[in-house]
């Protein structure tokens, strides 16, 4: 502190002028800061109302009243919270008090985000987030449909393996008819065994071929449904109404994907391959000689060995198809706008930033005021109150001093003795008055 009679230094005088300038700016800003904070609070409450409305299924009067009550409470809470901090945080001077208020600001900011900001984001980007959910679901269904179709086609490709095995047995039967296998020309026991297995494979081949049109028709119908679902994601209008139709299309598409899985012939080929070698009806050896019957028996044994090898090859091919990774089960789950905004938050960062900024922007004003008040205090540090008075304040102080002196002069001093009043002069007698005349 400077001595009372010492004049201000140049730096101190500049500091005082700087502090007065900042105070003038703060006084001017205070004229509309409350209004601005109120506008931000009301705007946040409006978007909160829209977000709450999207969560309520009922559109009755009670739901509207509940949404209004919640949004009003949010607006009042935001206004009161930031008003407290704008007044108290710049005024405190100790680090402990500032740390405490910073902690309270952090907790309050989290509470505001939890009760308001995510609803604001739902109001800003709720419809777009639901459309994003629809688009992602379409992509998942498309992947599942294509995968199911691919596995079904891979199963249909087993038809070539079955055809090749059937053709090999037919060729062997022709050789047996010419006498190249058992040495006995004609259609004997060996020929009938070969024809028996060739007929079984022919029936399996026909059954596989009959599945091909069903697979293609299911895939075509699935693509048609997918096209409609894609159109629903971008069509104008209420997204809730589109979600209902989208859900119906998703159910039909899921049924087609399941049908494609069932049309896979790999399990059928595997069972047929197992039965191919296990169920053989051996005919009676029809050679007229013992040597011929021995040759037929040996040939049938060789045929059965070949049959087992071909059956094992078909079984492995069918198992390879069945071991392929199946299409992922996709289930469309309708979600609200608020849930969609949270689920796809990364895709709507600007909307989240705007929703949070409208609630937490006053925090910047709190720090601005704190910095400014700190600068004012630093500029006045080392100066007395008499050095910081303005001319108007000095005139007001002088006027107040005069009023105090006048009031003191008009009141009696209790320490002085009381003043005795002069006695009144007695009235003259009537005779004396007449003589004098």
Automatic annotation (TrEMBL):
* Region: Disordered, residue numbers: 406-437
UniProt keywords, alphabetically: Membrane, Transmembrane, Transmembrane helix
> Could you name the domain of life of the organism this protein comes from?
Bacteria
- Per UniProt, the ranges with Low complexity bias are 418-437
* TM segment ranges: 27-50, 62-85, 97-119, 352-371
Q: Does the keyword Glycosyltransferase apply?
A: no
Q: Per its record, how is this protein called by name?
A: DUF4407 domain-containing protein
Give the species.
Sagittula marina
């Amino acid at each position: 502190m400077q001595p009372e009679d010492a004049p201000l230094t140049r730096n101190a005088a500049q500091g005082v002028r700087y502090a007065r300038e900042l105070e003038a700016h703060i006084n001017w800003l205070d004229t509309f800061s409350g209004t601005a904070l109120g506008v931000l609070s009301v705007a946040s409450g409006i978007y909160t109302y829209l977000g709450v409305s999207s969560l309520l299924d009922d559109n009755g009067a009670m739901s509207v009243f509940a949404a209004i009550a919640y949004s009003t409470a949010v607006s009042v809470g935001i206004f009161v919270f930031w008003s407290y901090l704008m007044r108290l945080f710049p005024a405190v001077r100790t680090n402990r008090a500032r740390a405490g208020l910073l902690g309270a600001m952090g907790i309050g900011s989290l509470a505001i985000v939890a009760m308001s900001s995510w609803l604001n984001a739902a109001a800003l980007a709720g419809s777009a987030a639901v459309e994003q959910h629809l688009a992602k679901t379409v992509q998942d269904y498309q992947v599942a449909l294509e995968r199911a179709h691919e596995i079904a086609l891979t199963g249909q490709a087993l038809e070539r393996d079955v055809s090749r095995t059937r053709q090999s047995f037919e060729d062997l039967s022709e050789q047996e008819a010419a006498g190249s296998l058992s040495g006995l020309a004609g259609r004997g026991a060996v020929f009938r065994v070969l024809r028996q297995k060739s007929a079984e494979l022919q029936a399996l081949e026909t059954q596989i071929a009959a599945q091909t049109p069903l697979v293609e028709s299911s895939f075509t119908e699935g693509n048609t449904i997918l096209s409609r679902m894609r159109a629903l994601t971008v069509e104008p209008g209420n997204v809730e109404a589109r979600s209902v139709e989208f859900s119906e299309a998703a159910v039909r598409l899921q049924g087609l994907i399941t049908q494609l899985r069932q049309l896979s012939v790999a399990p059928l080929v595997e069972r047929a391959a197992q039965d191919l070698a296990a169920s053989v009806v051996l005919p009676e050896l029809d050679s007229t000689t013992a040597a011929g019957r021995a040759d037929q028996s040996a040939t049938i044994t060789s045929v059965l060995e070949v049959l087992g090898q071909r059956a094992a090859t078909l079984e492995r091919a069918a198992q390879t198809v069945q071991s392929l990774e199946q299409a992922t089960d996709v289930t469309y789950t309708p979600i609200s706008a608020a849930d969609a905004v949270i689920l796809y938050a990364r895709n709507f960062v600007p909307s989240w930033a705007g929703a949070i900024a409208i609630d937490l922007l006053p925090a910047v004003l709190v720090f601005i005021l704190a910095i400014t008040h700190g600068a004012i205090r630093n500029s006045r540090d080392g100066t007395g109150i008499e050095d910081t008075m303005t001319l108007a304040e000095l005139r007001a102080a002088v006027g107040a001093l005069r009023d105090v002196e006048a009031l003191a002069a008009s009141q009696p001093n209790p320490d002085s003795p009381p003043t005795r009043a002069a006695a009144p002069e007695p009235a003259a007698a009537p005779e004396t008055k007449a003589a004098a005349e």
